[in-house]
Design brief:
This protein is mainly alpha-helical. It has 5 helices and no strands. The chain has one domain (3-150). It has helices at 3-16, 18-30, 39-65, 92-108, 111-150. It starts with a helix and ends in a 13-residue tail after the last helix.
Length: 163
């Protein structure tokens, strides 16, 4: 896939997947109406949400630059993405989306978003386990198996994998 097509596809997928899960649904649940939260908690929530956005953008760029494809299952990468944050954890996009939701919960002081994060996390974990991992095993074989064994899926390793 050409980089321009991969970038366009990734941008569309960004709006459709994380944009809905970490943007539209939290808005639908809260109307962005703030509850009560101390200023320090709100500030921490803002920082967490911003950091999650940076991680998410980095992960999407890796798919275009390194993988020559998109995160969307309909337009997968040509190469296995194992650089950048993917050297520390296999699912930085999902973690970033969950962090963005948790950050919004803190920022807005809205408990409903924590409950939503739990449900969204369970769905993401199930999708990764039952769809993505088998698809990556079929597509990249031993290369993916080596990566999967060395890099945790959900809790980042401190030292980057150098496979």
């Amino acid at each position: 896939m050409r980089k321009a097509a991969a970038a366009t596809g990734s941008a569309v997928f960004f709006a459709l997947a994380p944009g809905v899960v970490a943007g539209l649904v939290p808005w639908w649940l809260t109307g962005w109406q703030a509850g009560s939260a101390p200023p320090a908690v709100r500030a921490a929530g803002g920082l967490l949400t911003a950091a999650a956005g940076v991680v998410l953008m980095h992960a999407f760029v890796r798919f275009v630059a390194e993988g020559a494809g998109t995160p969307a299952p309909v337009a997968p990468t040509e190469r296995l993405v194992v650089g950048g944050l993917y050297r520390h954890v296999r699912n930085p996009m999902y973690i970033a989306v969950l962090a963005a939701i948790a950050g919004q919960a803190l920022l807005l002081g809205r408990q409903v978003l924590f409950g939503y994060a739990v449900v969204a996390g369970a769905v993401m974990m199930a999708f990764a386990r039952w769809h993505e991992e088998p698809a990556l095993r079929r597509r990249f074989g031993d290369q993916y198996e080596e990566y999967r064994r060395a890099v945790p899926g959900w809790w980042p390793r401190l030292r980057p994998w150098k496979g």
